[in-house]
């Protein structure tokens, strides 16, 4: 690394990322992954974070400019990342020959650091929704599709979007998706609208992966849905506007509100086959949620770092004392530390499970972190904002934007409540067996009383009885 | 196992404990530990939990009776446990030849199940404060002390107490401890009082490990304190009363308020040597906190099991629906699941760290779980209580007692706030380096602006300026 | 007041209760009520609180003793209270000639102080469930019933219980109540069981007001239920046991689990008439919830007082500083103050509304405080417990018992969740109108755009459109 | 009102604001205020809210445009408001002849409705910081100052800013303010920088009220500070940039970062006199905090209205049911209702106290609402956002902006923590007296034991004593 070497040479007491891996995870981390992890950390801290404001400035001002921009700094970082071997680390080993050969756990550790910078994920070609889209294409794409879309995505030349959510329905329940996909001869014709089409704002976005209803009368609500590939420049597509996130536009990536009017694509563009939409999206979701979660952990860590920096700012002495002398601040730091560490372990455990038995069997663990991590990150970031006062909500710190991003994480891929409902129902399946177990235990207690010749008396029994009753 | 075989043969879909170990912990768990774990689970669920009410009944009524009781059921269970090989599992392998040969992580997994029953820990000779006291004796005791106290403790024949907290000072800061220990000839003479002397109520309690001030003028507040062995029947000792815990007396174990008036013990009874009290107690605390934490996890799991059982009770249908049809109940179940799982991983990681590098280097992780776990368990238990309504706060369920026990865990071994203060200060040590890092990053950003010939303009700059200022 | 005059003469800066009434409530408080309020405060602080431990000691030990006790100190205090004019203040003026002539708001202010002592409410003949039962008898009783039961209750000679909750059903939905009430000739015959029969433990309890099903096939679930008067000594009644509350027995009052086996009472004992049970209990609930809530406010205030006392205990200096020098303690005090004050205003406002338009039209306000106040009190008490460490959970302070009592308040008269469900549904009735309003506002916005010749463009619109769509 | 009459004629079951005043507040509200309140409500709902998007559109795009804009819709609304008599309602009666003659409580009720719209406050000439600045000028200004600045402000012709916070110090402690104010001949010369200069972005802003240090060596940190009037176009002033609030620019009002370089104003521009800065700002803060708080209550109410509308949107049916059929949503609505109502009562009580005894004596109540209300509003808004999913964080609803605004309220006028510290310290002043009271109560208990010939025995005493100790 040619740069200032902020961490290794300058920072007193610096301990590299690989030595801060929670010990319980160590047996699952290869030496190669540790080495890469340390490179990732330094790349993020020394190259990406300092470049974030350059990226912001190169975006320019105004909607048109910002959503046409392709900041040169990004390509420079991509070149550096590629040279450092930091490229496509997200593609899990064993499944994809195109990836860097890491497990989900190993990449998860790296994703934490990527999450500290606005641009680091893309610099390593590991940014959503491309990651999930590449997985879909790699898993389910035809050879032709792979050549046309996957290869340039893997090289970081184009970008992609995933179009699922629709404004007019409760998309948190994906069976509600309405986008019409009708077969006409050799083509599929799409009509409808989508929003929260993240990434669609980028001028380099060339391919949409679209979910819609191809078989609206199928008895199975699931079999009604298909996933289909739609080139971004297909006639009939209109981007109406970009949605803001707590005031931020996320340019050039963005979150599009898009309409489809008689949009036609070749029959071959359907993924896996008609009616297999749920199969496609379910295969896509597990790793993505782990990535989001670990990046959120990284954001929380960075917020805590800024918090700690503020606490030691000698210019900021309310009531004559450094913030670090105020017990309530130390308490918040401690609770942030505790919560982040617990959340990280949850994600790492989910990643390990996914590595060991696949995403389907790790659904519970994945759902848990989907709910736990954003809430945790938001608490930490909010505490850091509060420590900064006005600076915390403004452009002066990265905190407000991190909060906005974190807030959407409670909604992206389904709101917390949907996941909790599912988790609760799943847990509730144990209910009948547990009820039976408790009853068996109570019955055994009864027989113990009998066996020991003890009369079972509630210690609070009141011998004022004048009669007897069957309870 | 001779009993009803509640779990294995009767329970539909039963999955043994060893198969529910979080996958991330698996590499640290031996096959032997897994087998023992499954035996522990069955012993607790099939033998101990059903026997809990027998134990309660055998205690009798009234303070005098309850604190003289030695319920026969306990000795029966101890015999069973011993036969099953479930004895002294807490003594960590490598350190003590007397133990069962498990790591802290392995025993932690078992302790979770022990924590589901009121009497299981003692049935396996793994109950506090004997565990910590045995560690002290094994580590620091002379051979004579070991023969006299450690051996019968290891065999479960006697019990012990640890006397640290004092009513008249803020004992959360142990340098405040005032119990006077004065050398007179061949003896040490103790004067003062202690409370929260847990275990002192048991008629089988024969030895007190006492902290006190032997060198009150020493410049180091730490070196003022010593730990000394005091037989429970030494003249001058008075148990004034037993402290209740949210209304519970925890008989016969109990929490004593005890005074010492010219209590004399031989000079040799000092542990490690005068002024080494802090060394002794610090060595004692790490594993104990892990044990407490894992038992609390077990309590939380049991509360959740009762919660789930209630949700499926067909007699309990507010507004015509099973509780399990009420979304808010499912939501609480889900959040309980999430929180317990994250808390467990935190404890397991702390245990692994303790196994790998020792308790001293795992202080941060241990403090984290000390704070996190009781708060988590209390939330879960409270939710279960609420689901049960009146039954939840009464003797009808194990929940109210579990809540009381859990509540004290936020105080035992120092209140949350003390641990958070310590954690916060520890974390704050990174503050200066992080401040420097952030400043270096900002500086690098400046040089990037310069290098690229960009003028660094805040995107929100307002060119209404009429002058110029040095900011 | 003959006693030490703890407050007026000894306490520096003491401000009497009447001068601490929230100013917004003042117009509703008569001068006479203010005078009485100050007497109540002094009676509680100077007489009742110091007598609480006497009461506890006079109860004795053991279930049989405690539930047969009638501590003499109570009758002494009743005599004092009566002399001071502090008697039956709960009976709202205008409705009952027998009361002291105060409004619900005025009595509410007094109830706060009663709630600070374990025995003050009963000392003033203002304790539940007698208060609600007296209201029922005064409102709906026949003259004969009034003479037999109401008069001695008003004089504080006997006590009463209200038997609604049943162990085998979800009683939070009162239509589930199953106690069978069958007409046989001139009698009603009762069969079934009740629990949480609060007050039934007292040996002076002579009358049960019982809810049960007299018309099980009535199409209206509400009309199935009746309320009936049952003398406590009627044959066929068995008190099986007293329920504990987080380990406390609440003796001699207690919470009974009672069975009815062919319990016969005269036909005339039905209240208001068969099928009018809901009418009776609904008339009873409003004031009782206000009383509970204000007493809980008093408990929270007392907890905060103990908290503040601890913060200034010179013997308790963790890390060399008084607790009051620790910012996190001051923060908790502040938040306790804020929350208590807001909760009190909510109760006072509900009381005013009840005074102005009756309990039925104040259901929303009453439900709000039913949920808000216990949660608030528990937070405050829990913070005080934590400040005290071990002393906080033990018999050394009044805090643990206050916590236990407060915890049941989240369940008594229906769990929070039931009230929130009802409140939520009630609020949701506005949903359609609000939806219409918002749509009308959006439509008006459209017409404003048109009127002003403005094209309605989303500021984030992206003019990359190649087509057009109907959104 | 000429418009659509959204509320009165169209909305089923509409109840005007005056009839929804909490009953406890009614005695303090004049008939005239009730009438005005209803007009305010309709003006906001029927005129301002529909015009909010017009205002947004008329602002245009880009920093320069937005901070030069003066949307015509605002002047139209000001004309309407003025005609309706809705002008300067904030100036409290009794103190200022220029106002509309309402009490702080009465205006508080109105401010709630103003807080529902982005532009309603300014439309009624009741927007911060002009309100506080007008109070300062009216209270402390010379006649000449009043003519030059107060009169046009009262007429809504110009705007003003209050410059206190500085980026380089912990401004939450105002004694830290560093802006240098030096006397040179007939002038004061200012040097330094300010930020969070709210309102400074508006092109109509003509006057800054600036706090700074005129006597840096004064022994009293308070007497060092002065407040001075600085015309916005004075040479030497530079607006460097506008600060964003969670991504929003709040144009044209804005929050400026401004530098002063040798800015000269006449000697007469000092307010009240040198060294009296704290006197000036303290007089200014009370009413402003009430206004902020009540507007936040209005924002929370509007968020709840949107929440309820969403719950009844027939197009949004996750899992086949309206959101309003999901218990967890109803629960959140209920808790929102409870919390808003309690918070409103707190503000109204603080306003009443301020009306009765002045802001200085109402500091506690004002500080309480300063902390309570924003936290409450944020919880409600956050719940509404979550119900909306993606729409909630985007420009599709008013919720995200309301959240951003609410978040800053936890910082504006000092962060929560500073107010809690102050509140806690203030409350702690009672500590010594309370400690003495509790000790006196315990002593009285002792003498009661003695008087009754009772031996004071802890019910948990264990008579195993072999000796005696002085406890």
UniProtKB/TrEMBL annotation, chains A, B, C, D:
Domain named Acyl-CoA oxidase/dehydrogenase middle: residues: 161-263
Domain Acyl-CoA dehydrogenase/oxidase N-terminal: 33-157
Keyword list, A-Z: FAD, Flavoprotein, Oxidoreductase
Domain (Acyl-CoA dehydrogenase/oxidase C-terminal): residue spans on this chain: 275-426
Keyword rRNA-binding set for record: no
Flavoprotein in keyword set: yes
Cofactors named for this entry: FAD
Signal peptide: none
Family stated for the protein in its record: Belongs to the acyl-CoA dehydrogenase family.
This protein's name: Acyl-CoA dehydrogenase/oxidase
Lineage, uppermost ranks: Eukaryota, Fungi, Dikarya, Ascomycota, Pezizomycotina
